[in-house]
Design goal:
- This protein is 46% helix and 15% strand.
- It has one domain: Rossmann fold, CATH 3.40.50.720.
- The protein has a seven-stranded parallel sheet with strand order 3-2-1-4-5-6-7, with helices on both faces.
- With 252 residues, the chain is an alpha/beta fold.
- Bound molecules: NADP nicotinamide-adenine-dinucleotide phosphate.
Length: 252
């Protein structure tokens, strides 16, 4: 249950080793947290994430196996976490960037990306929403991307999965309206994490801690959609207006 100041006391992270999600948990008032469940594929990275939170004096940190691509298991995994107690905040952070050239050359690779980023998110998102609705409170943070705002030639497979995810999350937020539960859609640009390691940075590149600050502030303000960093809202509004013959020639 949220505390008297409206701060979350229990958090579920789907994609438990995500650097953006971890930074977000660390940006919450730590002394308020009573339970943090990191759901992810068993790996040293997931264990390290749990250790990092515990070392930061966060109480009640645990891990649970969760594979976004294994949608048949989602009901059990998510149901069990909610059965063990209220969840105030769910951060849906799993995702794969993949390689555009590889995905174009091998449709199975593209399908695997779509399965995690879109199908997995639909499966987990609907199950989380049902649990939040039953609780009558709580927030679902969805890690979308500016890549989904307009698909670019250079990464349209990833972009299309995020476009689908973003549209789904908007609808889910509308469906939950009035239930006490809500959805916050986060649209980051380029963030320095494992996902972007080795890629050339672009203007407005930020760190996971910056995204975390934006997410926590947006949750407190009851926002439904937020860009990270904020000025990307205007960049994307401008890019959406660019005619296609021009857009496809842009070096982006
Ligand atoms: N970094 C950016 O520039 C950026 C920009 C816009 C949006 N985003 C989005 O932000 C979210 C978090 O990304 P991040 O930057 O924090 O990168 P990250 O640290 O690489 O996190 C990605 C997470 O997704 C998990 N994951 C991948 N496939 C999975 C599967 N089949 N089942 C369960 N978990 C799976 C990874 O777990 P494993 O350890 O098991 O691989 C990892 O925890 C992603 O949805 C990403 O698309 C990132």
């Amino acid at each position: 249950m949220m505390d008297a100041l409206g701060e979350p006391q229990s958090v579920l992270v789907l994609g438990g080793s995500s650097e953006i999600a971890l930074a977000t948990v660390l940006a919450l008032p730590r002394a308020r947290l009573r339970r943090v469940v990191l759901a992810g594929r068993p790996s040293p990275a997931l264990d390290e994430a749990a250790t990092q939170l515990t070392s930061a004096a966060i109480a009640g940190v645990s891990t649970v196996g969760f594979d976004a691509a294994d949608t048949a298991s989602h009901g059990d995994v998510i149901g069990r976490v909610f059965d063990e107690g209220d969840v105030d905040l769910v951060i849906m952070a799993f995702g794969v960037l993949g390689d555009q050239a590889e995905a174009e050359a091998d449709p199975d690779t593209a399908v695997a990306m779509a399965t995690v980023n879109y199908t997995g998110a639909v499966s987990a998102g609907l199950r989380v929403a049902a649990c939040l609705r039953a609780q009558g409170h709580g927030a679902l943070v969805v890690l979308s991307s500016v890549a989904g705002q307009r698909a670019r030639r250079s990464n349209f497979v990833y972009g299309s999965t995020k476009a689908g995810l973003d549209a789904f999350a908007q609808g889910l937020g509308d469906a939950l309206h009035g239930s006490g539960a809500r959805v916050l859609i986060v649209r980051p640009g380029f963030v320095r994490t494992r996902m972007t390691e080795g890629l050339e940075e672009v203007p407005l590149t930020i760190d996971p801690g910056d995204v975390a600050g934006i997410i926590v502030s947006a949750l407190r303000k009851g926002r439904e959609t937020v860009y990270a960093p904020g000025p990307l809202r205007y960049v994307m509004a401008g890019l959406k207006m660019v005619p296609r013959p021009v857009f496809r020639k842009l070096p982006i």
